[in-house]
Amino acid sequence: MADDLSSFAKDIFLIKASKKSTLVWRMAVLVIAMACGVYICSICLKQISTRNKTGFLDIKVVKRPCPEPNIEPWEIPYVHYPKPKTYSRDECACNPVRNFAILSMQRSGSGWFETFLNNHTNISSNGEIFSVKVRRSNFSTISETLDKIYNLDWLSSASKNECTAAVGLKWMLNQGLLQHHEQINEYFRTRGVSIIFLFRRNLLRRMISVLANQYDKDAKLLNGTHKSHVHSPHEAEILAKYKPVINSTSLISQLKQVNDTTTKALEYFKRTRHIIVFYEDVVKNRTKLLDVQDFLKVPRRDLKSRQVKIHKGSLSSQVQNWDDISKTLAGTPHESFLHADYRR
């Protein structure tokens, strides 16, 4: 009886052991199956990710770069393809753009000259941007402003936007230009900016224009409105009626100071690609504007301006103390200013 019980107990143990072994095997198979499933899923995900990446790469390849323009090797640094943040250039995206800056002095004809440039369908000259002091407070603000202009993100009435072929601004020498000339020179060099120097030969005429403009800022002769430039002969005649008195004592030193400033500017920026234009030459011969268009590499156009000249005729009729001025300048290097009337 004891043997039977012992045998029965052994059978039960074997049955339990067999069930336990089967359960272990089942668990092992399940673990292996799960591992295989995870592995297969990871491979599938990688394949999907690779396909997506390949798709994006294909899209980039489809976008063809702008073709190289047919230009001389030396011109390459001056050709740009801006990508404005504020709009798309659309079909003009591959039209090259050249950067420029008009460097001048107040009352040297720069406003009149700029209207000619903006009359061209492919030129955008954005005015006297740095007349606002905060924009020239340091070189950082200067470079940020220039970046907007040359990236075609500076929107003004002069902006041609998409199909601009030459973009720039008017910059007076006393607006931080000479103060930060080293950094600005480097900026011009790295950004491929060309310079148009616009000066006035007859500095005495310029002085008369400066004094008359200063007077009108307070007097506001045109119906209580100050205008630096006019578009009708009638308005020009009203402003020309004012005849300033020039301080003959400080006259020579003032003329010398202006001459030294222009000389300094030419010296500072002589290594930057530039052209020198004189106001008197443009007045006498409008074909000088063709030289400027060739310099900017834009198609030649017959450019026009609506601005009307304010001060005309002999200098003796434009100031009150002409005799004092004549005596002061006689026998000096500036004597030619008394007689010059848009001559070389």
From TrEMBL:
Organism superkingdom: Eukaryota
UniProt name for this protein: Uncharacterized protein
Source species of the chain: Bauhinia variegata
